[in-house]
């Protein structure tokens, strides 16, 4: 079973969290170059689609992929570039996240502070998927699936 199929199989668990949950947000945090690679890899997964908005010209949090999960439920994959100048914007994205994943230790203190403000607990990508490679679409899919499972546990 592919990572996309495993993500879709989590729909019943997501639905049990409450009928008002129409979107499941996974936010991946890291240096901009790694996040660009994650974004490209995610769009190579057959189930992911590009978001309706184009990527911003500055390194701010934004959606990079969506996955329809049926019946007005969708998964949104966001990236949060760890550029300290934009740290004041991070809590707005983190507040709506069901899962936050840290790729590296860039701006670690600032990300920890933003997570504390929003009540988030960042997950470590290497702990979720020990063989994680941001340029491999199946690895990115496994990371999203593992983040979702961790958030729903």
Features:
153 residues, alpha/beta, Rossmann fold, 5-stranded mixed sheet, globular
Protein topology:
Elements lengths: L2 H7 L1 H6 L6 E8 L1 H11 L19 E9 L2 E9 L8 H5 L4 E4 L5 H11 L4 E2 H4 L8 H16 L1
Parallel strand pairs: 1-3, 1-4, 4-5
Antiparallel strand pairs: 2-3
Question: How far is the N terminus from the C terminus?
Answer: 21 Å
Q: Using the CA coordinates, give the radius of gyration.
A: 14 Å
CATH architecture: 3-Layer(aba) Sandwich
CATH third-tier fold name: Rossmann fold
CATH class: Alpha Beta
Task: Please tell me about this protein's structure.
The chain has about 150 residues and is α/β, with parallel strands linked by helices. The chain has a single domain (about 5-150), classed as Rossmann fold. The chain has 7 helices and 5 strands. It has helices at about 5-10, 10-15, 30-40, 90-95, 110-120, 125-130, 135-150, and strands at about 25-30, 60-70, 75-80, 100, 125. The chain has a 5-stranded mixed sheet. Strand 2 (about 60-70) and strand 3 (about 75-80) form a beta hairpin.
Short description:
39% of the residues lie in helices and 21% in strands. It is α/β, with parallel strands linked by helices.
């Amino acid at each position: 079973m592919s990572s996309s199929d495993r993500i879709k199989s989590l729909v019943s668990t997501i639905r049990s969290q409450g009928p008002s949950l129409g979107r499941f947000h996974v936010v991946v945090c890291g240096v901009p170059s790694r996040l660009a690679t994650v974004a490209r890899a995610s769009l190579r997964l057959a189930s992911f689609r590009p978001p309706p908005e184009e990527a911003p010209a500055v390194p701010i949090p934004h959606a990079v992929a969506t996955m329809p999960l049926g019946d007005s439920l969708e998964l949104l994959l966001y990236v949060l570039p760890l550029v300290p100048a934009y740290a004041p914007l991070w809590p707005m994205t983190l507040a709506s996240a069901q899962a936050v994943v840290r790729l590296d230790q860039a701006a670690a203190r600032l990300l920890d502070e933003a997570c504390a403000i929003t009540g988030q607990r960042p997950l470590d990508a290497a702990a979720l998927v020990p063989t994680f490679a941001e340029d491999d679409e199946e690895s990115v899919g496994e990371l999203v699936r593992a983040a979702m499972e961790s958030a729903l546990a």
